[in-house]
Amino acid sequence: MNPNNFKPASIAAQALGWIDGRTKAIVEPVHMSTTYIRDPDNQFRSGRVYARDHNPSYDQAEAVLTVLERGHASLLFASGMAAATAVFQALTPGDHVVAPKIMYWSLRNWLANFAAHWGLHADFVDMSDPDAIRRAVQPGRTRLVWIETPANPMWNITDIAAACEIAHAAGALAAVDSTVATPVLTQPLALGADIVMHAATKYLNGHSDVVAGTLTTREESALWQRIKAIRVEIGGILGPFEAWLLTRGMRTLYPRVRTACTSALAIAGHFAQHPLIEEVLYPGLPSFKGHAVASAQMHGGFGGMLSIRVRGANGAGEHAAIATAANTALWKRATSLGGVESLIEHRASIEGPGTPVPADLLRLSVGIEDTGDLIDDLEQALEQART
Ligand SMILES: Cc1ncc(COP(=O)(O)O)c(C=O)c1O
Q1: Residue 40's CB: how many other CB atoms inside 10 A?
Q2: Is residue 16 within 8 Å of 60, Cβ to Cβ?
Q3: Closest ligand 1 atom number to CA of residue 200
């Protein structure tokens, strides 16, 4: 399959149309071997030495993702955190980085604690305001601007092109956690980013049965060389079966994401003026702060993630939110996102003390179930929580 001839949805559905050379199977096998035969003269002309360095089961997933992200190359990692932290570890102690105030909390904690101890200086800013990024970058000292858009769990939108321009003007690189947007909706590399990251645990795999992470680079660079070395040397590699499952998951990426987007927009619209809801946070709503930027940089939908702030009696929104999540039947009360099943989560409980997330907020990951069923289930749970 020549990827230039087909649309991304076709490329994903056939995982680039790879055929197993030995058996002619249209699904590639899983390669479990941890080591490879040396040539008699002690060379490795196969190009593969040991499974921490190379695994043929990575090739297809990495190649598919590189095409979907319109990048130069991709790497699979053992988790989204392993992928993201590899980018920061490729910097040098003493370097300055700029990151969003609202972002995936575990990575924010890692930056504020482990990375700070290791010698990185991170400033957390409101990335929905390009002037705030401009004020935070220190020309010559800032090495990386980390972007997450839409950002967990308030779905703040960053103008990727504007943020990348500010980063580059200051001599810094720009990386985008595009987990929620997915390559279906946004291509950060085409907007100027140097690296795009995914928690592949979420939409790329899409079935809540693999923990994985990915990075894709716009070009071969010194940073990319260091990232590749980090994967081999620190060893945050994905298992071959998980890589195979990820390839299979990506085959249905487009229909899954499109269905989730359509459903999320309908759910957001339904609850936007609801008497038991204080606020619906969803980039697809015209009233949402980042809607105009999201409309410009997200194509074909605004994602499957939204949050609702529950209006409790006498201001007891937290209690009402927890009670709502306790009463859903179809929405599953669990963390994570991007799977075919819809999940509901009281986010402040999982993030713990110090979280910037409002206590009345429920994060919703919309799956591919019937939209009417999802709305009805949430309606009855809100009603039960009121009584
Ligand atoms: C936006 C985002 N980035 C990164 C991660 C980390 O991914 P993982 O759990 O695979 O390490 C998550 C996980 O929830 C996430 O939602």
Answers
A1: 6
A2: yes
A3: 10
Active-site position among 159, 177, 194, 360: 177
CA distances from residue 91 to 121, 143, 196, 354 in whole angstroms, order as listed: 11, 7, 16, 27
DSSP bridge pairs for 310 = 277
Write the DSSP assignment of 280-292 as a string of letters.
Answer: EE-TTSTTSTTHH
Q: Any idea how long the chain is? A: 387
Number of other residues whose CB lies within 10 A of the CB of residue 49: 12
**Residue 80: CB within 6 Å of ligand 1?**
yes
Q: Are 338 and 365 in contact (CB under 8 A)?
A: yes
pTM of the predicted structure, to 2 decimals? 0.98
95 has catalytic annotation: no
Distance (Å, whole) CA 76 – CA 329: 35
Q: Which two tokens stand for residue 241?
A: 């079966």
Number of H helices, E strands in the chain: 15, 12
Whether 70 is catalytic: no
Tokens standing for 44? Answer: 């490795």
Tell me 338's DSSP state: -
Six-digit token pair at 349?
Answer: 């409980």
Query: Does the active-site annotation cover 282?
Result: no
Rounded Cα distance between 249 and 351, Å, is 28
Query: E strand or H helix at 148, and its extent?
Result: strand 142-148
**209-228 pLDDT per residue, tens:** 999 999 999 999 999 999 99
pLDDT of residue 315 exceeding 80: no
Give yes or no for residue 338 CB within 6 A of ligand 1: no
> Mean pLDDT over residues 97-109, rounded?
97
CB of 283 shorter than 6 A to ligand 1: no
Catalytic annotation present for 386: no
